[in-house]
Design brief:
Blueprint (H helix, E strand, L loop, with lengths): L8 H12 E6 L4 H14 L8 E6 L5 H9 L9 E4 L3 H5 L1 H8 L7 E4 L5 H12 L8 E3 L8 H10 L8 E3 L12 H12 L6 E3 L7 H13 L7 E3 L16
Parallel strand pairs: 1-2, 2-3, 3-4, 4-5, 5-6, 6-7, 7-8
Helix pairs in contact: 2-3, 6-7, 7-8, 8-9
């Protein structure tokens, strides 16, 4: 007779995922407290050999020294599939170390660098991809990086390459801080998309694309290897449709 512990398959899957997932939520407003907690976590990371999903959620983080200690420990987590790092300049300052560690993670599929990039660090990410260090990534999130200039995005698009498995690219900005890109930046984006043969979806909310930009992006969709299913979204969705009532006077 087969023994059972009374748990369903779904319950076991959820419990298994919890053991493989680590979310660091540090909500303290005191910088020294945040730094202390992050330093403590960086010492326990190498012991979590089977960790697959790591999300570091801190409101903002600037200390590059402590962040470097943290990212250096990532290389020991050989089964990591997803990495999300916090907002703040601390990540941008150590992006070289980060990329060195990530290239050893052969199962990494999702990389989220939101609200923490500048022109220089974003270009380093693109150059790392060109060197084949991010070739396994399937989803790249670069959301709300308002410190990146139009020229910074242009250079990023020009260098991003060799990401054969990339399915999703998210470069959306805050709707309060939209950007009108130069036509050459949109052209660089179009050429970049064509170099990503398995790309299926691009999010670029809060990019103010004009009629000429839209035509170029539609042409890219038509000529892309995934032309039947690729989508490029630039219009910010509304949370709900407005209801307009006619008043009787």
């Amino acid at each position: 007779m087969t023994r059972t512990d009374g748990r369903s398959g779904n319950q076991k899957n959820v419990e298994s995922r919890k053991r493989q997932e680590l979310i660091f939520n540090i909500s303290s407003r005191h910088i020294t407290d945040i730094e202390r907690q992050l330093l403590q976590r960086s010492t326990i990371l190498p012991k979590l050999k089977n960790l697959k999903f790591l999300r570091l959620r801190v409101k903002t983080f600037w200390n590059a020294v402590i962040m470097e200690n943290f990212v250096r420990s990532l290389g020991a987590l050989e089964f990591l599939e997803e990495v999300e790092l916090p907002p703040g300049s601390g990540v941008a300052c150590v992006v070289d170390t980060l990329l060195q560690q990530l290239q050893h993670l052969k199962y990494l599929q999702i990389l989220a660098l939101n609200e923490n990039m500048n022109d220089r660090s974003l270009l380093q990410v693109a150059k790392a991809s060109k060197d084949g260090k991010l070739s396994r990534i399937r989803s790249l999130h670069l959301i709300c990086n308002t410190e990146v200039t139009d020229a910074g995005w242009h250079d990023f698009f020009q260098h991003l390459d060799n990401m054969y498995h990339l399915r999703e690219l998210n470069i959306s900005l805050l709707y309060m801080h939209p950007m009108k890109p130069h036509p050459s930046t949109i052209k660089a984006l179009a050429q970049c998309i064509l170099r990503l043969p398995h790309l299926l979806i691009v999010f670029m909310f809060a990019w103010l694309v004009d009629v000429a930009d839209q035509k170029l992006l539609n042409d890219v969709k038509a000529n892309h290897p995934q032309s039947k299913c690729i989508n490029i979204f630039w219009q910010q969705p509304l949370p709900c449709l407005p209801v307009i009532e006619k008043e009787n006077f």
